[in-house]
Amino acid sequence: MLCRVGYVRRCAATLNPILGAVASRQKHTLPDLPYDYGALEPHICAEIMQLHHSKHHATYVNNLNVTEEKYQEALAKGDVTTQVSLQPALKFNGGGHINHTIFWTNLSPNGGGEPQGELLEAIKRDFGSFQKMKEKMSAATVAVQGSGWGWLGFNKDSGRLRIAACANQDPLQGTTGLVPLLGIDVWEHAYYLQYKNVRPDYVKAIWNVVNWENVNERFQAAKK
Ligand SMILES: [Fe+2]
Asked: Which residues form the Manganese/iron superoxide dismutase C-terminal domain (predicted)?
């Protein structure tokens, strides 16, 4: 049986390098925050950051690992039905891990202000001004029905910046093709303890801690 599993894994790796990587990869781990839980106060309080990172993000990571393990077993057995049935969990927990990993680096206690250089020029070209981009992204983010994310993304085909909204934990690139540059999490776990039901106030405040250096790095990488 072990030989058969090994054979199947080798075949999977040959036929599909991504699935092969799944079969042999290490487990996903919760990344450290690049700042303290209280570092984004008063805009995002320490209690929100601690729960959001150590509980919510950690749960996506754990459930992603469980899902991938089940997927790996199904793959080894040639059980396509189970593989298909695991897709929603993979999308939800994989998306949750991808989105939050980006989100933490999009924020900084030294953030806020405006982007510089090429990113600012691209924003002006595609939205008219930085202020207009902020207004458009804020409106799209506040308008997310239920839980989801607002995004500034990059369309590699057109070379243009785009605003998008995603439901649940749908990852931007995996579901729209846009490369994620800046995400705003509008799940209630991201703001309710501090802002209660007033999502617009949270979205307004988060601009004070946006790490434009990180957004610009993502923009430069996306253009290559
Ligand atoms: Fe979140």
From this structure: 115-218
